[in-house]
Structure formats: C-alpha cells, structure tokens
Design goal:
The protein is an alpha/beta fold. The protein folds into 3 domains: 1-39, no CATH class; 48-219, 3-Layer(aba) Sandwich (Rossmann fold); 223-417, Dehydroquinate synthase-like - alpha domain (Dehydroquinate synthase-like, alpha domain), CATH 1.20.1090. Helix content is 43%, strand content 16%. It contains 17 helices and 13 strands. The strands form 4 sheets. Strands 3, 4, 5, 6, 7, 8 and 11 form a 7-stranded parallel beta sheet that branches. A two-stranded antiparallel ribbon has the order 1-2. The protein has a two-stranded antiparallel sheet with strand order 9-10. It is globular, with a radius of gyration of 25 Å.
Length: 419
C-alpha cells in the first residue's frame, strides 16, 4: 500500500515523478497534484540549394538530395508540375525522365510527372487536393518516398499540404519555378489552400525535406512574373536590411531588365533573409501575433480576394508596401520623403501602385479593403499586430490602425497615379 502523498517509482522508467498519488483499497491510484508535463523538442533542418539546370544528368544535386538519409537505397518519387511551367518548358518531362534513367540506381520515378493547374485555381478548388492524394495512394507512396513539386507558390502550397497530410507526413521536395517562390514562399515552412473565401484558410506548418532553386526556370518566366517576385525582396529589405535595400536601389536598372547576375543576387539574398527570420525570429510556426514577414500583406491579401486573384500576389504586395509606408509617414513613425523613395523603387522595378479595387465599397459604404484589417486580426488570433516602418530597414510592430489614415494613404496613392 502507498500512503497519500507518497511517491513511487515508475515501473517502466524506474524514475520517481513529481506527481503525487492517492491509492484506494482496490489499489487504484488517483492523481491529486500537478499533471505530468510532456515536453520535448524536435529539431528541423533542410538544405536550400541554388543551382542552374537541375535536371542536367551531370548535376548531382537532386540525386544527392534524395540519398541524403539513405545513400544505398533506390528512392520512389512522384512529381507534380505546374501546367504553366510544363507549357513554357515542353521538354521538361523528357529531361526528368532522362535524369531518372541516368540515376536509376537511386531514383525510381513511379509514374510520368503529373500536371496540375497553375495559380490560385489549384488552391481554391479542394477536389484537386483529393485528386493528388489519390495519385499518392494509387502509386503506393509511403513515408520513405518523396513527393516533388515543381512550380510556383500556389502549387508548392497545395502539394505541400498533400504531402504533410498523407500518411501524416511524406518527404516533400520543393522545386520553385518563380522569383516569388524562390526568394520567399518556397524556402519557408507553410502549406495551404483557400476556403470560405479566405486565403490560406486550410494549411499546415511542415518544413520541406529540401528546396532546390533552379535559375533555368526563371529564364523561362514571362516578364510579369519576374517583376512580381521582386516585391518580396523590397519587403524584406524594408523591415530587416537597410544595406540590401540600398543595393536594390543601386541595381534597379539591372533588375528592371532582368540582368541575370543581379537577379540571382536578389533572389539569394531575399531567400537568406526570409530563412533567417524563420530560424531566428523566435516564432517559426507563427503561434504568436507578430508577422513581420507580412509587412504590406493585410491589404495585399484583401486586394487579391477582391480582384478574384486577377491582381497577382506580388502586385498586391507592392501596393500594400506603398500603402503601409505612407501610413508610417502619416503616423509619425517614418521620416517624410521615405514613402516617395519606396514608391520610386517599386515603380522603377515595374510595379503599378494603384488599383481601382482600393476604392470598392461594401453595402455600408465602408471601403472593402479595410475589412482586411479585421481578417488579419482574426488570422492572428484576435490581437491585431501590424508591421510598419520606423526607418528603411527597420520594422516596428503596432496594435492598431487608424482607418482615417488608411483612407488618406489610399487617396495619396490615387493622386500619385494621376500626377
């Protein structure tokens, strides 16, 4: 018999817990003090490569990635490709097949690469998620196989969700094909699709197994998509790295014509800053309220929804950056003139900083874009935290936004367009 308050060794671990027990005559014990505290840490790591011509059989990076944990094994992989990428690079499937054949000792391509719709259509219709999961089930993809996604941010988001939720997690390799996904979303840990009219409503935090950035995909991009990705570089420079922002200004002429060396530097530095924030910012899975990497995004997400995604993410972010930078000036956080400086850079890179959706109103005559603040607050768990600027390269968190100053910022953007 054990008396009230007496501690006894755990029969499995032979350790003495801090918990106290009360034992009845039937030898049943009831906890009467603090519960066991289950606590453990799980380290995450994944390589991020920057290469060129990934599927050249002489390029070892993909083969090395697949064999990183089990060098002597033949690895089963299934590949999903953004159909926009497949259309722009019609020989891509052949390159993949040739690579798999040359490296057949380590690669078992279980079926031909599968094309999926590009853009927000894939994220907005859930039957595509089920369709991809069925491909995995039919191909007997297990937790030691690989799901490879080749495409822009929308495809990476959707395939990442499929990989994270099938068999409770299958190894996922991201091969981003846009500037926006190579320098921002593709190197992160988020996966998601849209639902109930809300962007990224369903999703997971699940780090990929690896990220392989291949500049060959950037060469094939339409001009509009090359421009779009530069918004995230301006964003992260504004909140985290003044010297990178100055570099962007100094190289704006080269970036505006997509000079290759400048583009590679921009993509890599932007990715590095995003990765540093995720790893060292203290909140990699966003359990708190601060979202510094979402500077300019409260308005951007709403503009994407209002325009039914005709306004691309990068285009909406550029408008959001300009809006919040002028707001920072109006609220006394940022010196006057810095808003014009930011707008000049964005426009030099090819962005338009006005869209009529900024003036769309709801039935109560409120600007639709203002509801983006309420959506953002709900997304953050009920506490509004918005990143603004106290200097170029320095973000500052605020917990309220003045609707009148937002409206003034919108009018300022409109007036700039008509100058």
């Amino acid at each position: 018999m054990i008396r009230l308050g007496e501690r006894r060794k755990d029969p499995w671990t032979q350790s003495t817990p801090d918990t106290l027990y009360e034992v009845t005559t039937q030898e049943q014990h009831v906890e009467v003090n603090a519960p066991y505290l289950q606590k453990f840490s799980v380290p995450f790591e994944y390589p991020v490569y920057f290469t060129d011509k990934l599927f050249d059989p002489e390029n070892p990076i993909l083969q090395q990635t697949l064999t990183r944990l089990e060098a002597d094994k033949r690895h089963r992989i299934i590949i999903f490709i953004d159909d926009g990428v497949a259309g722009a690079m019609p020989d891509l499937a052949g390159q993949i097949n040739q690579y798999a054949t040359v490296h057949s000792q380590h690669i078992d391509l279980v079926r031909q690469p599968i094309c999926m719709p590009a853009g927000e259509k894939l994220k907005s219709e859930l039957h595509f998620i089920e369709q991809m999961q069925k491909h995995l089930a039919d191909s007997h993809i297990d937790r030691h196989s690989y799901v490879v996604a080749i495409g822009g941010g929308a495809l990476l988001d959707a395939v990442g969700l499929v990989a994270a939720t099938s068999h409770r997690g299958i190894r996922h390799i991201r091969i981003p094909t846009t500037v926006l996904s190579q320098n921002d979303s593709g190197v992160g840990v988020k996966n998601s699709v849209n639902l109930f009219g809300q962007k990224n409503y369903i999703g997971t935090f699940a780090p990929p197994f690896a990220v392989l950035n291949d500049y060959a995909f950037i060469r094939s991009l339409p001009q509009r998509d090359k421009i779009c990705g530069m918004a995230e570089a301006v964003k992260v420079a504004l909140i985290r790295d003044q010297s990178f922002y100055v570099w962007l200004e100094q190289n704006a002429d080269k970036l505006a014509v997509f000079e290759e060396a400048a583009m590679k530097t921009m993509i890599r530095r932007c990715a590095e800053l995003h990765m540093r924030q995720i790893a060292q910012g203290g909140d990699p899975f966003e359990s708190g309220s601060a979202r510094p990497l979402d500077y300019g995004h409260w308005a951007a997400h709403k503009l994407e929804t209002i325009t039914r995604y005709h306004l691309r993410h990068g285009e909406a972010v550029a408008i959001g950056l300009a809006l919040d930078t002028h707001y920072s000036v109006l609220s006394g956080l940022l010196p006057e003139g810095e808003d014009e400086r930011v707008c000049f850079l964005l426009e030099h890179l090819g962005f338009r900083l006005w869209h009529p959706a900024l003036e769309m109103q709801s039935a109560n005559s409120q600007l639709d874009v203002l509801t983006g603040l309420a959506d953002f607050k709900e997304h953050l768990g009920g506490k509004l935290t918005i990143t603004l600027l106290s200097a170029i390269g320095t973000g500052i968190e605020v917990h309220e936004m003045d609707d009148d100053l937002v409206v003034k910022s919108i009018r300022w953007l409109k007036n700039r367009q008509h100058k």
